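Practice problem: predict the structure.
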Amino acid sequence: MSREDHPSPIPDRRLLLKGALAAGALTAMPTVAQAAGPSSSPAGAGAAAPYVNPLVRNRADPHIHRHTDRRYYFTATSPEYDRIILRRSRTLRGLATADEAVIWRKHATGVMGAHIWAPEIHHIDGKWYIYFASAPAEDIWAIRIWVLENSHPDPFKGTWVERGQLKTAWETFSLDATTFTHRGTRYLAWAQHEPGMDNNTAVWLSKMAGPLTLTGPQVRLTTPELAWETIGFKVNEGPSVIKRDGRLFMSYSASATDFNYCMGLLTVDADADLMNPANWSKSPTPVFTSNDTTKQYGPGHNCFTVAEDGRTDVLVYHARQYKEIVGDPLNDPNRHTRIQRLGWKADGTPDFGIPIADTPTHGSQGV
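Answer:
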């Protein structure tokens, strides 16, 4: 992941506000989610739901990291936009009832003082890192990517140190950073407004010199251009990567954060140069959308993890339980974290299926 310092004029404030509305906002066991196991159909496409949903209520932009201790570490956007939370469980279901710790709070003034969005926890080179978006308390739409670091083996202990802003090529609206490695190289993918472009955010990729620094060029992988990517706002954001059978797949979210929010997919051959945008192909239609039958709306800002068996791929995302929203979607707290099995099609591409319905009755969910 690489971004060069190259200041450019900040876009019109209305554009930033649009980007803000559209935002909801993996050194995991493998650093890219490594798909494993036989091809299967996803839950929601005929299979019984193996999980209780919603998994965690009032938590948007979820990120689940399965660590080498085989525990699941969960963080997400809190609707107050003022803190970073962390949960841990030996099972995915257990995250629902796991104790939640506030590991960091926003500043009262200055940088990191507003819109604490879309945190992701990663373990890199023996340390824990959380990438998140925030803005100054005095300029709440000047959202950028920031980093916390903790050198303690247990992220619930030790000290979370503020390591500052992760600098990209421009000082423009940016958020939703995720990191992964491929063949020994670490990358950062994120969403950012490109100066001079008539959109809110595109998805970018860069190599990283380390957990805190980009190196080399940053390249645009996808920009909102298709009809389903430009409803309400022109948005591509929330990238996440999974690798399987010689290809990398990058999901991303598009359009406004109401029921039009949906997910697209980019695909690249594992042998190709990831930094060449021409090597990535883009799905012409969304791969995961709202569903009136299951009554799940605005599914998106996902990540990938693996079930306890180490073989079953799991899709993690947020969605609402109703279609109509009163007022600004950003003020609606009911984007809940959900999980379901991720299937694979005969052609080797992920089969997202549909967002599954709420679980009728909640069973026990032991940690």
